[in-house]
Amino acid sequence: MDRRKFIRNSSFAAAASLYTPSLLHAKNAEDVILGHNNKQYRINTKWGNLDFERYPVKDCHEMVQDSSGRIILLTNETKNNVIIYDKKGKLLTTWGNEYPGAHGLTLFNENGTEVLFICDNNRHQVIKTTLDGRVLLTLDYPRETGQYTKADEYIPTETAIAANGDIYVADGYGKDFVIQYDAKGKYIRHFGGRGDKDEHLLNAHGVCIDNRDKSGPTLIVTSRQQNAFKRYTMEGKYLNTICLPGAWVCRPVIHGDYLYAAVLQSNAHLWQQSGFVTILDKQFKIVSNLAGSAPVYEGGKPAEMYQTIKAFQYPHDVCIDDEENLYIAQWNSGHVYPYKLEPVV
Amino acid sequence: MEFGTCISIQIRAGSLVNKCIPFVLLMIISHEAGAQQLFQLAPPVIKYHAVFYKKQQQVEIKFDQPGTAVYYTLNNREPNPADSLYRKPVMIKGKITVFKARAFGKAFLPSETAAVTFLEEGVPVSFAGFSKPDSLYPGSGPRTLIDAAGGNLDIHASTWLGYRSDTIEINILLEKEHPVSQITLGFLRDDANQVFLPEKIEAAYFNAEEKNYIPFATEMIFSSEAQEGARYFLASIYSNTKLPLRKIKIIINPVSKIPSWHPGKGLPAWCFLDEVKVY
Questions:
Q1: Which chain A residues are within 8 Å of B111, Cβ to Cβ?
Q2: pLDDT tens digit string along B165-202?
Q3: Which of B23, B103, B192 is closest, CB to CB, to A16?
């Protein structure tokens, strides 16, 4: 053979031996175990996949589970804003065409009947619906606070509903206030907002009620750009800050003793699809980062967290079901459907 | 992805196909295994005080993920497992070092390369005055350009002077007369925040005998394609020979309007700089 063919053939052999051994021994991506300590999971990226032509998604923003065990997904795709699966990932039903800015989704058991609260960024409203989409209540921008001159300034991201039905709305993309209403939608108070004091918020992306303490419920509010959660009394008095250095946390979700949160991105790699999921215990200590760095404390303070495995791009919410499985909805991640993570015992 | 390429080369090799069939089979098998989509590792996090240093600089890597190792190079080459294994902080010395690091692990695809360029501080500068920046990005006092605090990719960092104007003027006074052939400036490129590299940098030095400024060097900068994420950009201008000088005037022409390929085209562009060095 001539010299050129010989060289091409040899370099081929070299290339083959370089590439094949490692990949023949490599694991399936989904054999990888994510997380730390007693909160480790296996990931299934195909769980939520549907026929994109018939049931498209844009940003998958949030998810909840109802008492029938159904997994309810909220997307800002107006062809079907709400997509309902069973735990196996089978599509059950869809509804919703009027929520172009569908962002926040909260489930509440109102005297035995479950209802949903949807925050819409584009409509600048919070909408309460039945589980099949019948509108029960609509909350417009909170004129009563004296902080807003028009609806556009109010971009609610999340709601949390207290046991007595009081509605807390986080204006996470507007003015970062948390507004409290009674169950009928009557304004009670507002707190938070922007500033340089501890009680102020920057990107109040999420809010939840923490019922884990016997002494009474408290509120946990996200201050995403400050990489922190902030705790308040149910009357809006600031208590303390839970620092999560490096983590752009979305909303806190409490299930059992643990607090779970999707982390949109790592401060170390901004706008480079660097998200992960963090889990905190009852003492607000970080115990596991799924696809993120091992939780480390130095002098009682958590070390900066960052993504280590590119399993997620921009995770936006985590839903925990009755079997401790996790479901992750992602924003701006190529229109991916939610992933499911199953606990490894 | 490499697999697809290899197989197509194989097919183009025509008369060698018979001899290479075993290779093809092996490659197809491995392609199938690869098609199960291994996760890629995230790039390691490189931690340092500043990109400029006087004698040496400590660089630390953070990458706490079991089953992985980080390899690094100091010679601008892409790291691989044959290079230095990161075990503890590395000391950087010398005029310019491109520090590159990459994470590897058996169950993962290798990460993208994380890279930081470190520069030794140059000739001692007494004073580096600058034209008034925008009030939103005023820097951190008169020594902003010579405090060796630079390379922070956060636009809100106090290390940055932010401008939205026609020209930026910098006046440098060295501690004493010194032969100089290079001036380096640190800029931010952050398309998402409408911060662009300047179009032109022009420098002149004061000639005491002729009592006027003589051209030192001029450099044009072209930024033609979109870039994801924020990057630190060191722009250097060079004179042909080392010139003995003490006073330098630098005129920077920012991009006047956001380029046409950017969603914000036509709007005023920002220019951010944080350090100036003389060599």
A1: 310
A2: 889 999 999 999 999 999 999 999 998 889 999 999 99
A3: B23
Local structure of residue B210 (DSSP, 8 states): T
* CB-nearest partner of A29 from B19, B36, B66: B36
Q: Classify residue B212 by its DSSP letter.
A: E
Report the C-alpha gap between B38 and B83 in whole angstroms: 23
Test the B interface: residue of A1, A9, A18, A20 with most B CBs within 10 Å: A20
Residue A345 C-alpha from the chain's centroid: 24
Which residue matches tokens 């930026």? B168
- Asked if A72 and A329 touch (Cβ cutoff 8 Å), the reply is no
3-state secondary structure of B32: helix
Amino acid of residue A161: I
d(CA A127, CA A106): 11
Which residues, other chains included, contact B269 with Cβ-Cβ below 8 Å and sequence gap of 6+?
B164, B194, B195, B196, B254, B255, B256, B257, B258, B259
B64 touching A, CB under 8 A? Answer: yes
- Residue B103, chain A, CB below 8 Å: the answer is yes
Q: Which two tokens stand for residue B38?
A: 């291994």
Give B192's contacts in chain A (Cβ within 8 Å).
Answer: 271
* Spatial distance between the Cα atoms of A232 and A271, rounded to a whole number of angstroms: 30
Q: Is the pLDDT of residue B30 over 50?
A: no
Nearest Cα residue to A130 out of A115, A108, A151: A115
CB count within 10 Å of CB B116 equals 17
A160, pLDDT greater than 50: yes
Q: Residue B40 contacts by C-beta under 8 Å, 6 or more apart in sequence?
A: A309, A310, B108, B109, B110, B111, B112
**What are the Cα distances from residue B43, in Å, to A137, A276, B56, B104, B105?**
47, 14, 24, 10, 12
Beta bridge partners of B98: B75, B117
The 3-class SS string of chain A reads: CCHHHHHHHHHHHHHHHHHHHHHHHCCCHHHCEEEECCEEEEEECCCCCCCCCCCCCCCEEEEEECCCCCEEEEECCCCCCEEEECCCCCEEEEECCCCCCEEEEEEEEECCEEEEEEEECCCCEEEEEECCCCEEEEECCCHHHCCCCCHHHCCCCEEEECCCCCEEEECCCCCCEEEEECCCCCEEEEEECCCCCCCCCCCCCCEEEECCCCCCCEEEEEEHHHCEEEEECCCCCEEEEEECCCEEECCCEEECCEEEEEEEEEHHHCCCCCCEEEEECCCCCEEEEECECCCCEECCEECCCCECECCCCCEEEEEECCCCCEEEEECCCCCCCCEEEEECC
Residue A222 to chain B, least CA–CA distance (Å): 21
**What ipTM did this prediction achieve?**
0.88
pLDDT in tens, A167-180: 999 999 999 999 99
For residues B197 and B148, is the Cβ–Cβ distance under 8 A? no
Q: Are A342 and A325 in contact (CB under 8 A)?
A: yes
Q: Name the amino acid, one letter, at B232.
A: Y
User: Taking the mean position of all CA atoms in its chain, how far away is CA B80?
Assistant: 21
Q: Give the number of C-alpha atoms closer than 13 A to the C-alpha of residue A45, restricted to the C-beta side.
A: 19
